[in-house]
Amino acid sequence: MSSTTANAVAAPVPAAPGGAGRAGHQPRGAWRGRLVAATGGAALLGIAATVWLGLWVTPPDVYMGNLVRLLYIHPPIAWVMYLAFGLAMLSSLGYLWPRTRDLRFDRLAGAAAEVGVVFTGLTLVTGSLWGRPTWGTYWTWDPLLTTTALLFVLYLGYLALRRVPGEPEARARRAAIGAVVAFVDVPICYFSVYWWRSLHQLPSVTAGKSYIHGSMAWTMLLGFVSFTLAFVWLVVRRYRLAGLAQAEEADGLALALAERRAEGEADAVGRPPGPAPLVEHGVGLR
Amino acid sequence: MWRDAALVAGKDLRIEWRSRVGLNQVVPFAVVILVLFGLALGPSRRVLAPATAGLFWVAVLLSAVLAVQRSFAVEAADGAGDGLRLSGLDAGGIFVGKAAAVTAQLLVLEVVLGVVAALLYAAHLSGFVMLAASCVLATAGLAAVGTLYGALSAGSRVRETLLPLLFFPLVAPVLIAATKAWQAGLQGRPGSGLGWLSVLAVFAAAYLAIGTVAFGPLLEDG
Fold first, then answer.
1. Residue A266 forms part of a structural domain
2. CA A152, CA A110: separation in Å to the nearest integer?
3. Across all residues in chain A, what is the average pLDDT?
4. pLDDT for the residue B99
5. What would the pLDDT profile of A142-200 be if each residue is shown by its tens digit?
6. Contacts of A170 in chain B (CB under 8 A)
7. Cβ(B1)–Cβ(B93) under 8 Å?
């Protein structure tokens, strides 16, 4: 186990501080940093273009009028939510599978779940903004809405579980099991809410077919692409940040151990049973 | 594995029988919740009687968290958890045993609570087979998830607040399905609750399976 930790901690360190700034030293890291920056820039431009096309260029809908403009952001945001939780689930399985066990999978799962929770919140907000004028209410106990709300609290719990301190491996294993346990609940939840509400209404999103105007379709597609790019950029940045935090934690521990050891050696002349409890204290503080 | 499960369940139930924490504290707590619901909703029978099933199951969910916390508090004291880890018992067996002990305690609680709910909310307890079957299946699911999450949050300092946050959203399907099954039973048409029983069975089976596999690695962490 200790060798994997060393690898996982050591691997991102050369690439991470580089980013776009220290281009000269690390050719490979710099190339990667530029790619990430380009993704972020493309996402920003894409979202700006979606806003422009969505608000000014595309025509209002025959039935929904200007409300249809939410079509360009609400479905893409919901899609990113599914993408994020799917990625979190896959990387948690990657961590649990003994052959691919690596703390990088754990960090990826954490990054994806965090971004996923943000996008779930955005899905709920944009959805209820849309629901108020079209359905006459901010909230209705529709299977998709209810499952999304439960998904939001389920993964808030998962993030809380990730923040519980502990040894990196133990923490990663707990988090990965928690992710699997939460993910299995999603289909059961959806079907039970669906049956619960089956007498009242069909899922609002899949009911009925709609025809879509050319420029509207293109704008929606652009929305999907640019929100996906934004998702990739956020996850990569968050993943790197988690790697740096872990490296800093390990460095800090090594530093604290060295300091305590030096103190212990200095004190050793005076007080023989010195360093042991101090070191334990240092570990506990994390 | 089954022998180990029986050993662990027997141990937990013996501890409970000698300390009677569940009987003296968790059952009264659940009754208090039923009284509070009555106060919150008012004395009208027309409001309370149809809500009986839902209120009963919310009270069970709240008590289940306490039962699970108690089940792991027992292991935290005096290094009992380390003893269990070093005992060489099968990890899946330990999981099944602890879940079975929680199930047994909750079933006793549900019997008491069912009678109290019938008295307080003036509901007729008809369709006994449906009520009992949904109790067994729902409680097995609750105990499986509770034991799994209890072990996940056991070592941490924030376990009292973490467990409910993890537990309640996850058991939302159990609340829906068990309430529907109970409503079907109470309204005297148990046939319409069979679909909900299958939801409860799928939930219990899924989490018993995950727990049996995942408990080993969780136990190692402590």
1. no
2. 15
3. 78
4. 94
5. 778 888 899 999 999 999 999 888 888 888 988 999 999 988 888 888 887 777 765 44
6. 221-222
7. yes
Which domain range does residue A81 map to? 17-205+214-256
Interchain proximity B210–A178, CB inside 8 Å: no
Residues 133-152 of A with CB under 8 A from B: 150
CB contact under 8 A, B155 and A196: no
A11 has pLDDT over 70: no
Question: Do residues B7 and B89 make contact, with C-beta atoms less than 8 angstroms apart?
Answer: yes
Under an 8 A CB cutoff, do B155 and A166 touch? yes
C-alpha–C-alpha distance, residues A145 and A72, integer Å: 19
pLDDT of residue A10: 39
ipTM rounded to 2 decimals: 0.86
For residue B165, the chain A residues in CB contact (below 8 A) are: 153, 156-157, 160
B144 has a pLDDT exceeding 90: yes
**Tokens in use for B141?**
């699911």
Q: Does A285 touch chain B (CB under 8 A)?
A: no
Largest CA distance in chain A: 88
CB contact under 8 A, B162 and A153: no
* A221-280 pLDDT tens trace: 898 999 999 999 999 999 999 889 888 888 888 888 888 888 888 877 665 554 554 444
Rounded to whole angstroms, the Cα distance separating A151 from A93 reads: 19
Nearest residue in B to A184, CA atom: B206
Report how far apart, in Å, the C-alpha atoms of B66 and of each of A57, B115, B154, B167, B179 are.
Answer: 58, 21, 13, 11, 20
Please indicate whether, in this complex, the C-beta atoms of B166 and A160 are within 8 angstroms of each other: yes
Closest by Cα among A212, A243, A232 to A112: A232
Give residue for tokens 């699911």.
Answer: B141
**pLDDT at position A115:** 95
Assess if residue A284 is contained within a domain. Answer: no
* CA-based nearest residue in chain B for residue A186: B170
Contact A182 B207 (CB under 8 A): no
Say if residues B144 and B208 touch (Cβ distance below 8 Å): yes
Alpha-carbon torsion A79, A84, A87, A89, what sign?
A: negative
B152 → closest Cβ in A177, A191, A192: A177
Of A158, A177, A184, the CB nearest to B218: A177
Backbone phi and psi for residue A280, each to the nearest 5 degrees, phi listed first: -60, -40
Helix, strand or coil, per DSSP, at residue A61 = strand
Domain-located, residue A281:
no
A156 touches chain B (CB under 8 A): yes
The number of folded domains in chain A is: 1
Chain A residues inside the 8 Å CB shell of B153: 161, 164
Give the gap in angstroms from C-alpha A148 to the nearest C-alpha of chain B: 11
